[in-house]
Amino acid sequence: MMLVDAHHHVWRLARGDYAWLTADLPIHRDYTLDDLRPLLGDIPATVLIQAAPTSAETALMLDVARNSSGLVRGVVGWEDLAQPAIATGAWQPWADDMNRVAQETGAFCNLSGLITEAASDWLVDDLRRYVDYLLTCFGPDHLMWGSDWPVVNLAGGYPRWREASMELLAGLSPDERAAILGGTAAAFYRLPA
Description:
Order of helices and strands: EHEHEHEHEHH
Helix content: 25-40%
Strand content: 5-15%
Structural class: alpha/beta
Shape: globular
């Protein structure tokens, strides 16, 4: 089974296009692949996701991928897709939107960014309803796990999200877990093994 982190970021603040990344946030600093590598453990492949809505950000990401020694195997441009308001327990219109996307398109979905939408004292059970719904809508062959690193550091960190994810996916078959944890991303992004 190939493990893939299908959602992480890098950024350079000096570029000036991260309007959301204010100085009061504990992640307000540059992040590079050198910061992420020690956290990956047995994960050999990643997909880099844009953190700013600019072409300069895309150019940065492509350069990072080219110079990653094979770690970054995919790059995704930015699009404003809002994760559910888990902190308030909001369900609609998110649930209808996710179902419509899953049913009417061939879209794939990242299982990432959920804990940053939850309350600061989130528990695994706070996320379960949302994860189960995404599994129902998209299925393991169209759902892929991602860390949302380093943004995940605002809501518990990489290890806590990975551990919670394993608990949330524990009821699935080994093949279904393998798909979500890497197989789907490898197929979707056509990542070399």
